[in-house]
Amino acid sequence: MKKLAVAFSFFIALNGLLWAVDPPTPLDPFENPSVRGNGMGGEHVAFVDGIDALFVNPAELRQRNSFSLLSVQASLINPAWINNAVLAYQKYSESEKLTDLTSLLSKAALFGVDIRGPLAFGFTVGGFGFSLTNRIYTSGRVVLPYVTMPVNIDVVANIGYAFRLIDLGIIQLDVGAVAKVFGRGAIKVRKNILDVLGTDDGLDNAINEYSKDIPIIGGGGFDLGASLRLGLIPDVDQLTVSVVAKDIFSIARPVFTLLQDDTATTTTTNEVYAVPQNIKLGASYRINLGSLLRVGVAADYTQDLTTLFQSKDEATEIVKDPLLNLSVGAELTLLGITTVRVGISDLLPAFGVGLNLGIAKVNAAIYGKELGSYPGDKPTTTVDVGVNFAW
Questions:
Q1: What is the C-alpha separation between 324 and 369, in angstroms, rounded?
Q2: What pLDDT digit, counting tens, does each position of 314-331 carry?
Q3: Cα angle at 142 between 139 and 258, to 5 degrees?
């Protein structure tokens, strides 16, 4: 146990030192958020199993053998604003007045789309796990007369293993690690908003900008996790406390560039990228009454470790308010078929429902998302739907 703690601390300090001495270019994490997790306030490190454990907490790979064939999950960020923009555009087209449209678009609105799948192959058995997934997502911003939309295309292969370090019957300690290999293509688009809508409006139609090539970044990294479990009544209740170091070490470099004429060229840049490191603490309590009723509650706190080793002048991003690092959630399943979820993340509510149809699992969620650095800064709403074929 002591050796594990020393190794855990060593890797955290090593990666922090690298960020402090020669900070690499930060990358968005290579994640695969589930509709289930989003419906209960986010992914909880002490309340996960199966394929999802490869992305959330490798120590939980021992909890359940599973097999995933494919999955389609989609998120729409700020759907109400998108709907209002469409209505304002329709009104503008009919009345030939710009008032409503320009008033709406001038609010520097944030919106986005996140599609995970259909590539979602993976399995877990005896503590060993493997997955191969893809994701396409964008977070756009409108500032008249432009819409800016960086689009990321990710492919990630995860391989992990968890083993039982301590087994005293009612007390168990599992530890695990996940190694990941990833690739990302980034497309940058900046266009006149009314060109996007197919409208000739008389506004200043400046030259549109877009990616003339698509740089492909390739790299890898790994996560470490540990889970301590206490079960007073065997197979009925379970208290779990977990700690996970996400991207405890990662590195990526440009691999090649796709050109507009569908050719590829190797890149000559030596830029180094890395995913900012964070550590997540979580706890959960579950009651399992078989197929009749299952109830679980979970809470987490996430801390970005990268900025702890940097001065304010060197920080790569604005530090978030600590309250935004808290998340809590609950899940209730009746008859093994119908599930209801609630949660709080970013100090905003989350709600979700699920339907277990055997191989097919259907889930939906609606939740708040804070895109700013403090509570109430840039809150928005996200809607999720997904279908997973897994067992």
A1: 10
A2: 444 556 788 899 999 999
A3: 50
Report the amino acid identity of residue 62. Answer: R
Pair 156, 133: CB distance under 8 Å: yes
What ranges do the domains of the chain cover? 2-390
Query: Using CA atoms, how far apart are residues 314 and 332, in angstroms rounded to an integer?
Result: 45
Query: What does the block give as tokens for 108?
Result: 């520097």
Find out whether 67 and 391 touch, Cβ atoms under 8 Å: yes
Phi and psi angles of residue 204, each rounded to the nearest 5 degrees, phi first: -65, 110
Mean pLDDT computed over 234-258:
89
Query: In the structure, what pLDDT confidence band is assigned to residue 191 with cuts at 50, 70 and 90?
Result: confident
Peptide linkage before 276 cis (omega within 30 of 0): no
DSSP reduced 3-state for 387: strand
Work out the pLDDT band at 78, boundaries 50, 70, 90: confident
Question: Rounded to whole angstroms, how far apart are CA atoms 96 and 329?
Answer: 48
**CATH fold of 2-390, please?**
Porin (2.40.160)
CA distance 39 to 341: 6
Return d(Cα 370, Cα 345) in angstroms, integer.
9
Strand 379-390 and strand 360-370: the pairing is: antiparallel
Q: What is the pLDDT of residue 204?
A: 43
Residue 90 near residue 100 (C-beta atoms within 8 A): no
Instruction: Provide DSSP, 215-273.
Output: EEEEEEEEEEEEEEEE-SSTTTEEEEEEEEEEEEEEEEEEEEEEETTS-EEE------E
Q: Of all residues in the chain, what percent are helix, strand and coil, respectively (each to 5)?
A: 20, 55, 30
- Closest Cα partner for 179 from 54, 276, 65? 54
Which residue, 140, 149, 144, 148, is CA-closest to 102? 144
Number of CB atoms found within 10 A of residue 202's CB: 8
- DSSP labels, 67-95: EEEEEEEEEEESHHHHHHHHHHHHHHHHH
Question: Which tens digit of pLDDT belongs to each residue from 131-175?
Answer: 999 999 987 777 666 777 788 999 999 999 999 999 998 899 999
DSSP string across 195-208: HHTT---SS--PPP
State the amino acid at position 112 in one-letter form: G
